[in-house]
Amino acid sequence: MSTPQETPAGKHHAPPEVPQAGNGRSGVPLVRLVNAGKRYGAVIALHDINMEVGAGEVTCVLGDNGAGKSTLIKIIGGLHQPSSGTYEVEGTPVHFSSPREALERGIATVYQDLAVVALMPVWRNFFLGNEVRKRGRMDIPAMKKMCKDELLAMGIDLRDVEQPIGTLSGGERQCVAISRAVHFGAKVLILDEPTAALGVKQSGVVLKYIVQARERGLGVIFITHNPHHAYPVGDRFLLLNRGASIGNYEKSQVTRDELTGLMAGGTELEQLSHELESAGGAVADLGRSMEADVEELGISHQPSTTTTTTTESDAR
Amino acid sequence: MAQTAEAPVAPPPRADERVGRKSPMARMLARPEAGAIAGAIVIYVFFFIIAPPFRNASSFSSVLYVTSTYGLMATPVALLMIGGEFDLSAGVAVISSALCASLFSYEFTTNAWVGVLVALALSLLIGFLNGWIVVKTGIPSFLVTLGTFFMLQGINIALTQTITNQVSSPDISTLQGFNSAREVFSASWTIGGVNIRTSVVYWIVFVIIATWILLRTHIGNWIFSVGGNPASARAVGVPVGRMKIGLFMAVGFMAWFTGMHTLFLFNTIQSGQGIGNEFVYIIAAVVGGCLLTGGYGSAVGAAIGALIFGMVNQGIVYAGWNPDWFQFFVGALLLGAILLNTYIRRRAEASI
Known about the structure:
Chain A is an alpha/beta fold. Chain A is about 40% helix and about 20% strand. Chain A has eleven helices and twelve strands. In chain A, the strands form three sheets. In chain A, strands 6-9-10-3-11-12 form a six-stranded mixed sheet, sandwiched between helices. Chain A has a four-stranded antiparallel sheet with strand order 2-1-4-5, with helices on one face. Chain A has a two-stranded antiparallel sheet with strand order 7-8.
């Protein structure tokens, strides 16, 4: 569909004030799937998926409900094994039998609602299951300090790590869960729809931490169904539909509008709008306006360099 | 909060200036036991005014004694509630343990200490079974322990009747080892004309241990997490099932301890006792700030809740009222405490 675009800015838009931005981009990808597929009995949940994420990269996985996103992250996170194809971590094929094994290789999954215990203080949440112990008890001052420092390194400046984490906003809670995974040695972060339940501003906060995690040299796999969230932070985009890949792009190869068009399933929408128009009356009006939307959404190959620059200013 | 996250302009000084906005009063109110402390002060002042004998040091020592008999059990019950579970069998389990020790050592004419150890094994087993059924089946602990509550109550009365042909256990004060066991579980000293029982000391020690575990150890962290959000706790590697079974066994352990205290104080045990006490323990924990839904509360709060019970229980006697009013007070206290706690928690959360 789209031809590779010449983007003068090169790879992407890492803020210049951070020197280590995009380090470790060369070399073996941290996580790579080659022709991976997953069957549940007769049901083919996923087939022939190729994807990779390197250190200091964000790979976005986009798709509507039922596209196979959760199956994909379950494979990467070690909950399921692929039934075909190979899964490599840092160049060597792996067969994880539990999430704990994946975690030991530095692959951490942050689920949207499993993240935290709302009534517990921030620092207790941060160290839950990994408490720092000193002579049989917890080293509380050290833990509080580490928690505060680690959050500050991610750009979260809490006034008190003693406050219940439930008093933080949804976005900040996600961020604490993310920085916890980073602190305990994650090299690859899998973020399962981290912005799905959040407002515009909150989503922005989470997107900023995704960029920050990337700048610290982590590989990030960002699952979302929102191209407006994916485009500003992503380096690669994998689009899924009905268990199959419908596109795998580098950022330089695709514009946000094209991404949105692909996500919306351009041809399907077009067909739907025709059906609605033939129904007549008010429904036909709806169909016509939908057709106009479809045209606007990148089926009508507009020059992409201009749109790219606007999206980047949006992103910040 | 989004703005604060934007860009920390300068690295904040060692003490964050924004922390100071919370006054000491607001900090105090944010503690789980805040409501209980307020309630305890009100009750104390109330009986201090209307019941002159209440003002004596010796009557306060008997208030403390009654408090300790509730408080010993309220402590593990509070931990269990923080861990997200109930134990309705806690009241009769105390009597089961005492009956077991008494009947075993009397019928087999063993040293009293043998009966004590058999009772300990039984109590831990009851706790384990309660916890194991709850964890394995996922049935709410309210129902599981309601079942064991009735089973234990039936066993207590029926077995005692079968073995002794009476409603109470035989007097075991002539058994070997009785005196040393009494020294351990039910001794008392007189200090400055005031009688102090060991159970008060034990109670305070156990409250301190429970508080230390809750706030200073990783086990405490895990107790809060299994009550607050078990799925999240499991995801970070907390052994949720083992924690819950352990908490039920802690209740079993304290039921044994309280049972031994009662047995060696009175030499004999009424088989129908203990019914209704499970609610006293739960109410003490709730008055002390434990949430019914788990994940929040404190052992100190439960201790203050028990103290409120002790003061009302004795205050009614000192005021010369009909003791039947006690039940009414229990209900009114529970309702009042819940309303007060809810109000305080909302205010505390708003002021954060």
